[in-house]
Design goal:
248 residues; alpha/beta; Rossmann fold; 7-stranded parallel sheet; 8 helices; 47% helix; binds nicotinamide-adenine-dinucleotide
Amino acid sequence: MLLEGKVAIVTGGSRGIGRAISEDLAKNGAKIVVNYNSNADAANETVAAINALGSEAIAVQADVSDFDQAQALGKAAIEAYGQVDILVNNAGTTKDTLLMTMKEAQWDDVMDINLKSAFNMTKAVARPMIRKKNGGRIINISSVSGLIGLPGQSNYSASKAGMIGFSKALAKELGGRAITVNCIAPGFIPTDLTSVLDEDRVKWITESTPLGRMGKPEEIAHAVTFLASDHAAFITGETLRVDGGIAM
Ligand SMILES: NC(=O)c1ccc[n+]([C@@H]2O[C@H](COP(=O)([O-])OP(=O)(O)OC[C@H]3O[C@@H](n4cnc5c(N)ncnc54)[C@H](O)[C@@H]3O)[C@@H](O)[C@H]2O)c1
């Protein structure tokens, strides 16, 4: 068990990539705080799936774009399990449109949900991690869109590139405490988020991806488990593409 005795918070952990991450960390021995924003049924289902694997989990509602709710989520995790060893900032959204038609609210929502949430949650867990003196792992789910930029996603690309800069700065601030901060940049994965892509876009994606297909949520989850484990103890400030090669 790579993560025996560890406690992880996974934001937006009830569906899609977040659910796969919650389950994979649990399979490897971690106790999971499954954060959700609005769908309690999906979160409870994920908790039940984790329990069926023989691991512990709780579901905690919080809009992580809201500073106070994020602090409450961190507190709930510590109340339940006494510590937080792993934070996965996975919650995210898209509001795709060309800059010419982008509304201010579409910019603000994406920045708040994708980027400010990572600040909010890191503020919630960094101090308890430092006090525990047991190191820690912060893993931010960025995107290939933040590396190469994609048209129609100026808000999303900016938020995901922002996560990478944020992670590097933090890796330098927290390295002395044995807390690593890394990003994963997924390529295209079929989830609710990408269900809006039309046939032409999916064709472009598979043709532009050297491995010739979209990825699976579990393939992102395995990379998270690796970065969360002792095997990755000397990796920090890194962005790992898990993208079938599309952004190389
Ligand atoms: N699917 C892809 O192709 C892809 C590619 C690159 C990066 N990503 C990133 O992976 C992450 C997971 O996305 P997904 O594809 O599983 O999509 P998804 O829409 O299924 O999952 C997003 C999750 O975030 C949660 N969430 C949204 N706003 C929230 C808030 N304010 N507070 C708490 N939770 C909130 C949602 O409820 C949901 O559980 C996102 O950060 C996304 O940007 C996805």
